Structure of Transcriptional regulator:
Amino acid sequence: MLRIHFTDADLARVQVATRPDPFWEICFSLRRFESRRGLWAYAGWHRSAREALYAKGLAPVVRNVLRPLYPGGTYFPDFLTPSEASEGLDAGLEAILDIPRQRVLRELNILDRANGAPAWTRQLADNGPREEFVRTIRTYYDVAIRPHADHIQAHIDADRSARARNLLDGGTDGLLAGLGPYMRWRRPTLEVDYCEDRDLHLDGRGLTLVPSYFCWGGPVSLADADLPPVLAYPLRHAASRTDETGAQKPRAALPALLGDTRAVILRATATAATTGELARAAGVSAASATRHTTVLRDAGLVVSHRHGPVVLHTLTPTGAALLRAGGQNPRTAPV
């Protein structure tokens, strides 16, 4: 178990990342190639990403270069998930190039003891091999993850909407208490199901919560307690009748969207809403609202996630584009 200890100052500095962290997603997506756990949730992505990687001749690079550095065991080097990535992929890649040689060697030695690491990995302490490795990371991201970025962001937005509701209803305590099922808030400690037993004292630094699309199972934190505290946690995936490959396109169900009721419901999801709230906005029963959201979801316009006793519905990028085409601002569409 990981026990994260908060002070009052830390509770005032908890934040949820606004967008996917490219380096955590790189790490966890590589693990999805190693394990069949949760494959049902990523089947469309898994198929399209594999096809793209093979088409580009990158499968051997993934197998022999990337996966040894991101093993599915208890440890992978912290320098591969730089905090600067909050500013985007380019900032994170620059940060990796700037990491001191001794730190790279130290973390690679830990990797070798924990999981075993090929001898070539030690070359990453030197500038030339590290620059080549950074180019490899960028190429993998561009081929396997970037085509699905809008789909991933839609899931992140849905999760953030749920966290925002918890925060508004219960303050930071409500936010932390709603992070289950792998986490339990027992003030002033967040208990996290973890692969090893350790304590992390925030000491006033706060905590950044990073929702991750490709994370499966329990949350993951940095190994070095002196680095800015981060906790990457898995999004909740729901089984879908649609084939989620990441490319959000109108589907055959789209013509069924014609009609005033569904238009109202679609606008209401712009700010995230429960089934009951959608029903009230449209003046229909909850059962009717459920049927309408099913059509919208099958058309790729909304995404739905269960959070405790309620289901929260939010727009996908395609849904937002449809609202914009109709003259609505999806960020401020009236309910």
